[in-house]
Amino acid sequence: MKTKTQTKEEVEVKEEPLSPLQAEGKHLNIPASRADDSTEYLIPVRAPRTKQTNPLAGSKNIVKNYGKQMASFCCSALAMPYLVPLASVHKVQSSKFMEWIGEAKASIDSITALRNLLLVLPHDESDVKAFKKMFQRLGEIFIKYFSVNWIFSGKMADRMAHLKFRFKMLRRIKNPELFTYLKQSTKA
Predict the structure, then answer these.
(1) CA dist 31 to 27, 46, 126, 141, Å?
(2) What count of other Cβ atoms lies within 10 Å of the Cβ of residue 53?
(3) Which residue, 20, 121, 122, 159, has most beta carbons within 10 Å?
C-alpha cells in the first residue's frame, strides 16, 4: 500500500480576507497614530524560581484553618455517627452542641481562641464542659481520619505545611493545656 505525502507547495493555504477594521488595526484598540507603526514590542518573560521555598514558612493560618474546619466537621453529617454516642455519654443534646459550636466557630482566629474552646476550666458550666470535651474528641477524630482528605481536596495553597503540622495539632488537641504555640522558633 502506497501513501502519498504532500509537500508545502502542493498544500494550498487559504487565508481569509481581512475585514476593514482588521486591515486598519482597529480591532486591536491601537490608536490611529500608532496603527501604521510596524515596530514590534518585546514582552518580558518572568524567569522561573531557582530558590526552593520552605513549605513550613508559608502558612500563618494553620491553627485558624484547622480550628474552623474542625468546627465545620462537628456540624456536618460526617460527624453524626461520632456525635450521637458522645452526646449520650456526656448527657447533652447534640442539637445544643451544634448550636454552641456554630457560634464558637466565628471566634476561632488564633491559638488562644482554639485553646479556649478545648480547655475545660473549673468555672465552666456543666454543659459547656461537656461541649468542650466533645469538641476535643471530635477534633481528634477529624485530624486522624478526615484531615488528609480536607487538605488535598481543599483550595489551600500550603498543603504540605498543613500536612506536616497534622500530628502537632493532634498532640495539642489531646493536651490543650500545653497548646501555647505550634511552630518552633527558627532563630538560634
Answers:
(1) 10, 28, 75, 63
(2) 10
(3) 159
Q: State pLDDT tens for residues 63-97.
A: 889 999 999 999 999 999 999 999 999 999 999 99
Is residue 95 domain-resident?
A: yes
Ranges under pLDDT 70 in the chain: 1-41, 49-60, 182-188
Distances (CA, A) of 39 to 9, 21, 34, 42: 31, 20, 9, 10
Q: Are 36 and 62 in contact (CB under 8 A)?
A: no
Q: For residue 149, what is its C-alpha cell?
A: 482528605
Which residue is listed with cell 526552593?
A: 52
Domain holding 159, by residue range, is: 62-175
For the chain, the domain total comes to: 1
CA distances from 7 to 2, 13, 14, 148 (A): 16, 12, 16, 56
40 in any annotated domain: no
DSSP 121-188: PTTS-HHHHHHHHHHHHHHHHIIIIIHHHHHHHS--S-HHHHHHTHHHHHHHHHSGGG-S-SSPP---
Alpha-carbon span 87 to 168, nearest angstrom: 27
Of the candidates 131, 122, 113, the residue with the CA atom closest to the CA atom of residue 176:
113
